[in-house]
Amino acid sequence: MAVGAFAAGRATAAEGEPSTAARDAFAFRGEHQAGITTPAQDRLHFAAFDVTTGSRAQLVALLKAWTVAAERMTRGLPAGEVGPTGGDALLPPDDTGEAIGLPASGLTITFGFGPTLFRDDHGRDRFGIADRQPAALRTLPHFPGDALDPAASYGDLCVQACADDPQVAVHAIRNLARIGFGTVAVRWSQLGFGRTSTTSTSQSTPRNLFGFKDGTANVKAEEPADLAEHVWVGRGDDPRAGWLAGGSYLVTRRMNMTIEVWDRQPLGDQEGFIGRTKDTGAPLSGGTELTEPDFSMSGSDGPVIPRDSHVRVVHPDFNGGARMLRRGYNFVDGSDPLGGLNAGLFFIAFVRDPDTHFVPIQLKMAKVDALMEYLKVTGSALFAVPPGIGPGEHVGQALFS
Amino acid sequence: MAVGAFAAGRATAAEGEPSTAARDAFAFRGEHQAGITTPAQDRLHFAAFDVTTGSRAQLVALLKAWTVAAERMTRGLPAGEVGPTGGDALLPPDDTGEAIGLPASGLTITFGFGPTLFRDDHGRDRFGIADRQPAALRTLPHFPGDALDPAASYGDLCVQACADDPQVAVHAIRNLARIGFGTVAVRWSQLGFGRTSTTSTSQSTPRNLFGFKDGTANVKAEEPADLAEHVWVGRGDDPRAGWLAGGSYLVTRRMNMTIEVWDRQPLGDQEGFIGRTKDTGAPLSGGTELTEPDFSMSGSDGPVIPRDSHVRVVHPDFNGGARMLRRGYNFVDGSDPLGGLNAGLFFIAFVRDPDTHFVPIQLKMAKVDALMEYLKVTGSALFAVPPGIGPGEHVGQALFS
User: Fold this and answer.
1) Which of A20, A127, B38, B284 is spaced 20 to 30 Å from B80 by Cα?
2) At what angle do helices A166-179 and A56-74 cross, to 10 degrees?
3) pTM above threshold 0.90
4) Residue pLDDT, tens place only, B142-168
5) Residues 6+ apart with CB under 8 A from B159
6) Is residue B1 part of a domain?
7) What ipTM did this prediction achieve?
8) Which residues in chain A (231-270) have CB-CB distances under 8 A to chain B?
């Protein structure tokens, strides 16, 4: 199976249907899970779950049930065979109904396993899989400036649902939570209303709530060598975790922006913090959005691209060549008690190894990045994302077999 | 000027541009404010503000500045003339930039005045307009089952921003809040990800998070006689508040749904609570979605449409003929501490008089509606929505002149 063969693979649309973006359906099975290199959809509903049972059999049964429901929903079908309105009026429906009549809308559902699924707080093996815990799958360290809400961090399992229609993404998470009743409970969930990343060269670069283009230098679906080097876990990466080869690590960081303070900063300062122009997104050293930054170019007062600018701090040239596949979303969760918008970037990144591709960069960013003055990280989580599954397999089969 | 002439009036699209829904722009000025009978857009950002100044002049200056910015943004322009990237690099931009490159996206911005704008908690005149306070503009009474969060209720001013792109709606509220810094502060705000109402016969009926079609029997733009009777404040309605003629009252109710409990109810019970089928939305007495319910039809065990069903409890036939123009949105604000989705319906209704068209119906609903077992009202507010403004006028001009 060729690398990426399924990553952007589209299911066949019904004959005669107009082939618009809203009707896109992405294959659920494949070498890698969908929702990573899939062209980033517009909307997100992300949920972290805690497992509430001690039974391995119950947990595996849930993963099987989730597999069936997720595959159905990504095809635009109801979560269950009976559907929201069929069957016995004396029974609850096996789909909740709010997506009746809506197409697949590009829905992808991506599953991940958190460190606490393998071992509890006392280091005890919870489900007989502790010896398969990847070495890099540990609770992320505390970073300077972290103000984490434990109720919005961590989790035994995660599900990322992305779609071009938010009702479809919400419907997916809700039905998986419904199916999991008694086995798992939602620990936290997050809606994202607008994508901030491009994961394909076919997409234009969107803007985050700082008003800047975001994700310009992302690893993209069309770069298989970079994906293999920076995103997919390699076959020999971790002898304990062969089941993770072809998968990835998923980092989430809920980055609240101090929007109101940011909005009072002069345009020149904003551009200095980012290292790019607000208009076209070109590096301050010139060119267009896609021009490589020239960090050596001098201005009247030090480098044109400041040393503490975001683009320089996180650039691969200063981080051992490490790149990430970012897939974050803008969020607004109402207002905080002081009247500021409770808003920012729900950062999502997929990396081959968090110890080399995320932790050092985040640590550096937390210490020296000028942007950090306008960010407060309120949620944080790390999950191991298994590879895709083949016909007849279920999510997590390689881990639990 | 004919009633409704501007209600669905569209600004001319740029020549040669494809005339897709995403590029629609609605006129900001007109007989009525846009965002009421305008075909309900897909996404919402609603904000309530408290006035933090004691100065009438400052408040009026803000309403003038808001008028300019709102009209610009509904045309797809930046909030200010300089724009997000023009002007002096030493000054903060007069637009925050996240909507650069996005079209008007059907944006409407609708302003309202709360009871506390007229009088403070001690009954004192705050801005010299107490004698113009409409008699019906009072804090809504406590209804049985209300579990209001004061921090998510009430407000001196409100702004409803609706658009087909959530980034455009968020951009509008954020820039109005930015412009209001020092004069007003956001008290609460609410994102809605999916419309639950049709306000035009050109729209199909969407579904709420109970999975049912919602808003079937809404007052619609194409019903001018019903709008005049049920939605627009008449010229002689309130001698103290002539400035409100041609306006309306806006009620918001943040109705949390106990999603997880609802999902465990048998289909037949769910349909009995609503009084309609989940599939087509037809009344349980038969026909299609648009068939009038037959409340007299008998089943084996009482009426086919139960007496405590939602459709019967709120039907005009049992409420003195009163109808509302509903314009609510589905919301999901993450999860609650118990692992349930913090989700439901952000109910918005426009009515001619809350004392006849909302309070009695809500009171009855709170007491007898079977649905109430699955609803918890956590936010509540009432605003007077002035009529539209003509050329050269500003929002609130008739009230403050």
Assistant:
1) B38
2) 150
3) yes
4) 999 899 999 999 999 999 999 999 999
5) B46, B47, B49, B66, B109, B110, B111, B112, B172, B173, B176
6) no
7) 0.93
8) 259-260, 263-268, 270
In this structure, are strands A302-303 and A298-299 parallel, antiparallel, or unpaired? Answer: antiparallel
For residue A65, report the phi and psi dihedrals to the nearest 5 degrees.
-65, -40
Residue of B189, B195, B188, B190 lying closest to B209 (CA atoms)? B195
Cα distance between residue B44 and residue B109, in whole Å? 10
Taking only Cα atoms into account, the Rg of chain B, rounded to an integer number of angstroms, comes to: 21
A10 found inside a domain: no
Which residues make Cβ contacts (< 8 Å) with residue B213, sequence separation at least 6? B205, B206, B207, B276, B280, B281, B289
User: Does the residue A339 lie in any domain?
Assistant: yes
Interface with chain B: mutation pick from A149, A153, A174, highest number of B CBs within 10 Å? A174
CB contact under 8 A, A266 and B91: yes
**Gap from A242 CA to chain B (nearest CA, Å):** 33
The tally of domains found in chain A comes to 1
Nearest residue, CB atoms, B211 vs list A89, A97, A185: A97
Structure tokens at B158: 């409100």
Q: Report CA-CA distances (Å) from B115 to B150, B176, B180, B377.
A: 15, 21, 19, 20
Q: Are A331 and A344 in contact (CB under 8 A)?
A: yes
Residue whose token pair is 């509220």: B173
Per the structure, the complete domain to which residue B146 belongs is given by 23-84+95-400
In-domain check, residue A281: yes
From B255's Cα to the closest Cα of chain A, the distance in A is 15
Locus of tokens 């770069």: A223
Which A residues, 335 through 364, put their C-beta within 8 Å of a C-beta on chain B? 335, 337, 339-341, 343
Cβ atoms of residues A151 and A50 within 8 Å: no
Among chain A residues, the shortest Cα distance to B277 is held by: A85
A87 touching chain B per CB within 8 A: yes
Query: Which of A82, A154, A186, A264 to probe the B interface (max B CBs under 10 A)?
Result: A186
Reference A154, options A353, A378, A400; nearest CA is A378
**Measuring CA to CA, which residue among A127, A120, A179, A184 is closest to residue A401?**
A127
A149 interface with B at CB cutoff 8 Å: no
Which chain A residues are within 8 Å of B99, Cβ to Cβ? Answer: 207
Within 8 A by CB and 6+ apart from B179, the residues are: B62, B65, B66, B69, B79
